[in-house]
Design a protein that fits this description.
Blueprint (H helix, E strand, L loop, with lengths): L1 E4 L6 H13 L5 E4 L4 E4 L3 H13 L5 E2 L3
């Protein structure tokens, strides 16, 4: 499970925009959490990089969480 924080995700429109961007890229196993300002996805490391890229392309500043 990869968790990506999106500190500039502030409203339902942001959630919709990120969701659409990830769906268009072929991702389906993810959850966008507005309150936590994060996207959680069950993906490989390579796919997580693609998700980061897609969120950036949608106009946001994602940061992958490290444990």
């Amino acid at each position: 499970m990869h968790t990506i924080y999106v500190p500039d995700m502030n409203c339902k429109h942001c959630v919709k925009r990120i969701t659409e961007a990830l769906n268009e890229a072929g991702f389906s196993d993810f959850e966008v959490d507005l309150e936590g300002k994060k996207v959680a996805a069950k993906v490989s490391d390579e796919e997580a990089k693609k998700i980061l890229s897609r969120i950036e392309e949608a106009g946001y500043s994602p940061v992958e969480a490290t444990i």
